[in-house]
Design brief:
The chain contains 6 helices and 4 strands, in the order βαβααααββα. It is globular. It has a single domain, classed as Glutaredoxin. It is α+β, with helices and mostly antiparallel strands and about 110 residues long.
Length: about 110
C-alpha cells in the first residue's frame, strides 16, 4: 500500500478527519504540518496544475476573509507567498498518494486514493 501524504495543520478539524480516515483503514500516512514546514514549491505546483490556484484557496475561510483577499488583486507569486506564511488560506487538507491528489475534506476522493 502506498504512503498517503496529508498536508494540513494539526489544529484543523478537516486535517484531523483525513488523518483519522486513513488510520482507520490502516494506510501508512505521513502528516506534514504546514505551520511547521511549508510545502515545497514543486509539491504545491502539483496541486496547482491539477486544481488551479484559485480552487486551492478557501474563500469561505476565516483566514481568507481576515486577509481581505476577496478585495485584493494579487499575482500568483504574491498569493503563493501568502499561502506559505498562512497555510489556512488553503482548502485543507491536501492529500497525495502517488500521482493521485485530493483537495479539502473529500472522503469519496480519499477512498480512490487507497
Amino acid at each position: 500500500m502506498p504512503v498517503v501524504q496529508i498536508f494540513g495543520v494539526k489544529n484543523s478539524q478537516d486535517t484531523r478527519a483525513a488523518e483519522r480516515f486513513f488510520k482507520e483503514r490502516r494506510a501508512q500516512i505521513q502528516l506534514v504540518d504546514l505551520n511547521v514546514k511549508p510545502m515545497a514549491p514543486a509539491e504545491i505546483r502539483r496541486f496547482i496544475d491539477r486544481f488551479s490556484l484559485p480552487s486551492l484557496l478557501d474563500a469561505a475561510g476565516t483566514a481568507y476573509q481576515q486577509a481581505g483577499l476577496a478585495y485584493l488583486n494579487l499575482s500568483d507569486a504574491d498569493l503563493l507567498a501568502r499561502i506559505e506564511r498562512e497555510p489556512r488560506l488553503l482548502r485543507l487538507p491536501l492529500v497525495r498518494s502517488g500521482a493521485a491528489l485530493s483537495l479539502g475534506r473529500d472522503e469519496t476522493a480519499w477512498k480512490t486514493l487507497l
